[in-house]
């Protein structure tokens, strides 16, 4: 048990989930900590690393097996030891998911929109397309019209092609607008993206992690294991929030948008604890060659630069 009461509270909160989301936490661990060190780790060291989280060996083995079946991880046997690495597909998934987590901020917006018309699709296919595009940041302006102020046309085309909907979907792109966030548009955004619900989740994140930030700042010397556990839970909870967040431009969001404060808090905590967390990872994890390799330059560009 840690000497930091807020950290113990966060660990207990994770353990009280029914069921414990071990697979999701392992995904966070690989994306945040293992991928920067080459992406391969011995299963035994992974088990020991997660023991303080209250995840037993059996559950970790089951979760790793499930992630392997789903194409995230691949296994290599060396003697009696098993080493798990990210697959190429898994690495692409991580790159896409975690890029948003560590970005320096939301890019500038010129007022252009991408509109997707679903009126020619069957009801069942329309539902599938809508769900997939909502994950990419689209909101429903009407039952048959989706809109996104920022989009990657290649991603949209790939999604529509995978679902067999490309020939029956109409995609428009508007020209940049002079007035980026009118009153009517802000009200529409609040409805189409359920901004109030997302704000409530961000507010909960702030309430959970602000006491941890205060406790960490008061420590004379930060403990490496505490820093690792705090960093893992911080990124785990923040990553789950970003999966819900369409990353709308500032011009379309309320002036007191909780997402800004949550991002600042996450960045502050991460910058404070990442170095000591790396010390713990260096002693706790190993691959077939021994200690994990050092992180690359891209790691230090997280959150606009780690100091």
Structure keywords:
307 residues; alpha+beta; Alpha-Beta Plaits; four-stranded antiparallel beta sheet; three-stranded antiparallel beta sheet; 9 strands; globular
In short:
It comes from Pseudomonas protegens. With 307 residues, the protein is of the alpha+beta class.
Provide structural commentary.
- The structure is a single chain.
- The chain is an alpha+beta fold and 307 residues long.
- It has helices spanning 5-15, 22-34, 43-50, 57-69, 88-102, 123-135, 153-162, 183-192, 195-218, 224-244, 258-284, and strands spanning 40-42, 73-78, 81-86, 114-117, 139-142, 145-148, 170-173, 286-287, 290-291.
- The mean pLDDT is 91.
- The two termini are 28 Å apart.
- The chain contains eleven helices and nine strands.
- Helices cover 54% and strands 11% of the residues.
- The strands form three sheets. The chain has a four-stranded antiparallel beta sheet with strand order 5-6-4-7. It has a three-stranded antiparallel beta sheet with strand order 1-3-2.
- Helix 9 packs antiparallel against helix 10 (224-244), helix 9 crosses helix 11 (258-284) and helix 10 packs across helix 11 (258-284).
- It has a domain at 113-175: Alpha-Beta Plaits (2-Layer Sandwich).
- Residues 108-178 form the Transcriptional repressor PaaX-like central Cas2-like domain.
- This is Phenylacetic acid degradation operon negative regulatory protein PaaX.
- Residues 193-282 form the Transcriptional repressor PaaX-like C-terminal domain.
- It holds the Pfam family PaaX_M.
């Amino acid at each position: 048990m840690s000497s930091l009461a807020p950290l113990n509270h966060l660990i207990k909160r994770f353990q009280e989930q029914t069921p414990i989301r071990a697979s999701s936490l392992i995904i966070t661990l690989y994306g945040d900590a293992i991928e920067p060190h080459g992406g391969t780790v011995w299963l035994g060291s992974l088990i020991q690393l997660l023991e303080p989280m209250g995840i037993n060996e059996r559950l970790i083995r089951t979760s790793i097996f499930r992630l392997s079946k789903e194409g995230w991880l691949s296994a290599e046997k060396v003697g009696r030891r098993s080493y798990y690495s990210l697959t190429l597909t898994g690495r692409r998934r991580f790159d896409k998911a975690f890029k948003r987590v560590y970005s320096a901020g939301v890019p500038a917006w010129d007022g252009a929109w991408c509109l997707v018309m679903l009126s020619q699709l069957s009801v069942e296919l329309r539902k599938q397309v809508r769900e997939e595009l909502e994950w990419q940041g689209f909101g429903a302006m009407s039952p048959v019209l989706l809109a996104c102020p920022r989009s990657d046309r290649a991603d949209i085309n790939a999604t529509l092609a995978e679902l067999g909907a490309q020939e029956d979907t109409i995609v428009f792109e508007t020209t940049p607008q002079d007035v980026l966030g009118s009153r009517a548009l802000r009200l529409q955004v609040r409805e189409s993206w359920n901004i109030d619900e997302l704000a409530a989740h961000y507010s909960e994140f702030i309430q959970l992690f602000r006491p941890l930030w205060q406790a960490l700042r008061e420590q004379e010397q930060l403990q490496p294991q505490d820093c690792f556990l705090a960093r893992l839970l911080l990124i785990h909870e923040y990553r789950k929030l970003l999966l819900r967040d369409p990353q709308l431009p500032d011009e379309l969001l309320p002036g007191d948008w909780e997402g800004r404060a949550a991002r600042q808090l996450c960045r502050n905590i991460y910058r404070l604890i990442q170095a000591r967390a790396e010390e713990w990872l260096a002693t706790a994890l190993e691959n077939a060659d021994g200690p994990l390799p050092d992180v690359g330059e891209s790691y230090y560009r997280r959150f606009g630069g780690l100091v």
